Amino acid sequence: MAAGAAEAAAAVVEVGSTRQFEELLRLTAKSLLVVHFWAPWAPQCAQMNDVMAELAKEHPQVSFVKLEAEAVPEVSEKYEISSVPTFLFFKNSQKIDRLDGAHAPELTKKVQRHASSGSFPPSGNEHPKEDLNLRLKKLTHAAPCMLFMKGTPQEPRCGFSKQMVEILHKHNIQFSSFDIFSDEEVRQGLKTYSNWPTYPQLYVSGELIGGLDIIKELEASDELDTICPKAPKLEERLKVLTNKASVMLFMKGNKQEAKCGFSKQILEILNSTGVEYETFDILEDEEVRQGLKTFSNWPTYPQLYVKGELVGGLDIVKELRDNGELLPVLKGEN
């Protein structure tokens, strides 16, 4: 094998155990480490492995690793990997960023950004300011209530963002969020756009309401509830969702792209029956994901509902299929 070929082959390292992963974290502490949590049953992972191989050639100073998520569950659980593909970025043995899903352009951008130690690739500065302002306008109008914060509502990355999320949840306010750590251009640009120098920032109908102190003042004066849109009560929402179609499947991913092995198996079984059904991706909505477990008193996914009633998970669906009872159940005859 020629040296170049050997180098390319060794570019993406496969990790098979927790110990090997921890050892690798230690050895690559000084450089950027990109870890692809993948699964052999997911075609989108194979595509992203090819993208990683290309990136490894372009960035020899970066360590690229693939780790089969279901084969090394201790590592997957530690970093809350709930779907594949997911990419984690490490520097100095610390997780510094994350990317969920098969987004090749975004992966390339993040690798370039982190590999150049915080300085951004030149391409990021080529957009004229008008473009950025247009983008910021679209982002601030992306939902009736938009929160620009550090991290996500599930994983806030600063105390002020955490407090803001807690207040919004306490008042049952429906909001979408944008993680300013995921985009330095937005992070800096929004300060100028809104003439507000700090984060978090809350917008309603595209207008800046303010940061944490202002939201606390509005809460104290009982004005917050009149300004921000209310979320429908969770239980009502779950009732509507479970009755959205005669046969409803709550799963990781969707009909076109399952994001866990169990969801993939249940799709195959349902597709073989020829019965029409709708799906809901629980990875897209943390409130539904957690709430449905309590609502249905069923702790895992996928969950199958017929006419709003829970049938069960994969094991029960397999059992019904094997007993020849699945079709009548799906048609609502049982």
Automatic annotation (TrEMBL):
Stored Gene3D superfamilies: Glutaredoxin
GO terms for cellular component: cytosol; nucleus; Z disc
Main location: cytoplasm
InterPro entries in the record: Glutaredoxin (IPR002109), GRX_PICOT-like (IPR033658), Monothiol_GRX-rel (IPR004480), Thioredoxin-like_sf (IPR036249), Thioredoxin_domain (IPR013766)
Residue stretches making up the Thioredoxin domain: 1-116
Gene Ontology MF term list: iron-sulfur cluster binding; metal ion binding
Keywords attached to this entry: Cytoplasm, Iron, Iron-sulfur, Metal-binding, Repeat
Positions of the UniProt region annotated as Disordered: 110-129
Compartments in which it is found: Cytoplasm, Cytosol; Cytoplasm, Myofibril, Sarcomere, Z line
Quaternary data: Homodimer; the homodimer is independent of 2Fe-2S clusters. Heterotrimer; forms a heterotrimeric complex composed by two BOLA2 molecules and one GLRX3 molecule; linked by [2Fe-2S] clusters. Interacts (via N-terminus) with PRKCQ/PKC-theta. Interacts (via C-terminus) with CSRP3. Interacts with CSRP2.
PANTHER family: GLUTAREDOXIN FAMILY MEMBER (PTHR10293), GLUTAREDOXIN-3 (PTHR10293:SF73)
Function (record text): Together with BOLA2, acts as a cytosolic iron-sulfur (Fe-S) cluster assembly factor that facilitates [2Fe-2S] cluster insertion into a subset of cytosolic proteins. Acts as a critical negative regulator of cardiac hypertrophy and a positive inotropic regulator. Required for hemoglobin maturation. Does not possess any thyoredoxin activity since it lacks the conserved motif that is essential for catalytic activity.
Protein name in the entry: Glutaredoxin-3
Gene designation: GLRX3
